[in-house]
Specification:
Order of helices and strands of chain A: HHEHHEHEHEHEHEEEHHHEHEEEHH
Number of strands of chain A: 12
CATH topology of the largest domain in chain A: Aspartate Aminotransferase, domain 2
Oligomer: homodimer
CATH architecture of the largest domain in chain A: 3-Layer(aba) Sandwich
Radius of gyration of chain A: 21 Å
CATH superfamily of the largest domain in chain A: Type I PLP-dependent aspartate aminotransferase-like (Major domain)
Chain lengths: 408, 408
């Protein structure tokens, strides 16, 4: 019998999408489902940048340069300059989404069997790219009690072996919303220097920081060869479907290697490069407005969550995610129950169980991730549902309330 | 010192792009360069399908389904039906170009160390995807004397080991333009059944056949689980920059595995899915017109080549490539010389040396690939250059002419 590859079997299915059939069934029963489970923003893609595509007037949809259009890379140099990242066009390779930047980074810097340390909970798809590259993810745990701050340096030291080649940091973090401080980034710098590691920095949510400034891995000095930035326009401009990202580094060998992977797949998508290029010319207040909206949503959802007895939600400093601990036996069961067995005024809410974001089995069993990608009214209605649901859910755990008090 | 991965070092640079700096230098000296080196068609992308993108009116550029928009997959079912490939929407996964279809196929079906047999000369980027997947390419040689027909079954048998998991066939072929017959496809079927192998069929050029009908690997009966079709709209509609392809198979396990890779990268590009969907509704005579143009170019270039003393070019049955044997010592040197040291009426021609398309070292040293992606006038002017160049080139080999006679 023909069989698929071992890595094909190992490849994890999307933990966020496994509840989709239950949501679809609920909708068929006439129930409105508030989707707080996925990072698909409802914020409109700026019409100006969609228009840049709509008004394009080329005759042949040609391959672009494998590193992306030079005109786009020139614009990105401007953009990065504005956020204090000083690079030239040859240090930027346009990728098909942030996804391809992660894949190219893993492929170019790591071999099968190499280890990469990632603070957990982490973006679940890192697992997928690790499996594709044969790389082993070594999670070290960040804790809800500290708001998911960087784990202590000793935890890194303990996890580092002769096979460790890199650390991945997502800042601000998906799924926790945690915004790493300058001090934490400097700690990471010490570790990567001491152990000669790459630092892969996923900064997809850079523009959405609510507590203090974003400190990029590219702001660290003296580690130009270690830092590889994995970026995307998906969240920045609500342009997820365009599939445009970038890998940025000052490491010449890495650039040369990534370029070969880029050449093999010929070029990144053409239309969305036009969109990305136009986005750099958006008015300076574009992010202010979007950020204000996200901040309002964050303030709403965090307050509503912490007002529910037994629920604890640390205040996330960035991105558009919040992690909450719920007074339930098993968040996977609870999230399915929300869709299968519950409704309030004919409405329910879809959440992402946190277990899928942990590399260590058994962790996050009573945590969920909430993406605040809906407007404040919908968030309030969704929180009404959650509040009611936690009253009714048969697997509720009462003692959790004391934990919350301690943690706060 | 930090170093890139072994696979990053192993990754081959694009053999087609290595001469680019010499072409750029020639242009700077004021020389017109006819680009017959790359498969970027000059045929206009049908304006109707570009308009479908330009007139799209969504507000948020959202992720699509990881397998691609359902509406697009439904349309593709129609398209495939028209060419006698009967599949349903769940047997189609939209990919980021044909490139990603190849990568997903390799990743899902093959493990590191597995072997895949490919008749050489072959599309050079298979090497890149093989390195990414840790897969070993075992070339078996097809010969210019037979017009690059399928190598005899014994050559396959000799190359098959316990690690062989698949055969890759590109039909019609890039770089040779060879169109495999039904009989040759049936021979492949025998081999994959006997040795329990996957058959990866790259049919990017399906619509461009000039000698007889295209016989798809999906037309083979009784091997539904073995055949994985890797497809793309790039050449079909002159839409290379869109980056839209598809992986099509009836093998449920492969589909399930590929779907996990597809989920990890979230979704294929959004804009070009709209374009691809519109393309299925192009008038029935669209391909006729395009094919007629390519056929005229093929007839022109093949005649012009064979009219040059010492040159031999078999008549390609499909795609838009021709392979020619030149009376030169080293085609790599000759192609560089054309750009660096030669011009005729201030013009020269850029060709792709064939060595980059062979997996076996030393083969193809006096062969080049020509992509007939320019109009007939340009092709004639380019052939004038080539004819003159072969008179002047210091590394010309005279005895080659006798070979040609024998071969014809």
């Amino acid at each position: 019998m023909l069989s698929v590859s071992k890595r094909g079997k190992l490849m994890p299915p999307s933990p966020i999408r496994k509840l989709v059939p239950y949501a679809e069934a609920a909708k068929k029963r006439g129930i409105k489902v508030f989707h707080l489970n996925i990072g698909q923003p409802d914020i409109e893609t700026p019409p100006q940048i969609l228009d840049a595509v709509r008004h394009s007037d080329f005759k042949v949809l040609e391959y672009s340069h494998s590193a992306g259009n030079e005109s786009y890379r020139k614009k990105l140099v401007e953009y990065y300059n504005r956020v204090g990242i000083h690079v030239d066009i040859n240090q930027i390779i346009i990728t098909t989404g942030g996804s391809e930047a992660i894949l190219f980074g893993f492929m170019s810097c790591l071999d099968a069997g190499d280890e990469v340390i990632i603070p957990e909970p982490f973006y679940a798809n890192y697992n997928g790219f690790a499996v594709a590259a044969g790389v082993i993810v070594k999670p070290i745990t960040s804790k809800i009690e500290t708001g998911f701050a960087l784990p202590p340096i000793e935890d890194f030291e303990k996890a580092i072996t002769s096979k460790t080649k890199a650390i991945v940091i997502c800042n601000p973090n998906n799924p926790t919303g945690y915004l790493y401080s300058k001090e934490e980034m400097e700690t990471l710098k010490e570790i990567i220097i001491k152990h000669n590691l790459y630092l892969f920095a996923d900064e997809a949510y850079r523009e959405f920081c609510y507590e203090g400034e974003h400190f990029s891995a590219m702001h660290l000095t003296g580690v130009d060869d270690n830092v590889v930035l994995m970026d995307t326009i998906s969240k920045r401009y609500s342009a997820c479907g365009g599939r445009i990202g970038a890998l940025v580094t000052k490491n010449k060998d890495v650039l040369q290697s990534v370029m070969k992977f880029a050449q093999a797949r010929l070029s990144p998508p053409g239309f969305a490069q036009i969109l990305g290029e136009a986005a750099v010319d958006l008015p300076a207040n574009y992010f202010e407005k979007t950020k204000k909206e996200y901040q309002l949503r964050r303030d709403t959802i965090v307050k509503r969550l912490n007002d529910i007895p037994g629920v604890f939600c640390p205040n996330p400093g960035g991105a558009f995610y919040a992690m909450a601990r719920l007074p339930v036996d098993d968040a996977d069961v609870f999230c399915q129950w929300l869709l299968e067995n519950f409704s309030y005024n004919n409405k329910t809410v879809m959440l992402a169980p946190a277990s899928g974001f942990y590399g260590t089995g058994g962790l996050g069993k009573n945590e969920v991730r909430l993406a605040y990608v809906l407007n404040v009214d919908s968030i309030n209605a969704a929180m009404d549902c959650l509040e009611k649901a936690l009253e009714e859910y048969p697997g509720k755990i009462i003692s959790q309330q004391t934990h919350q008090q301690t943690a706060l």
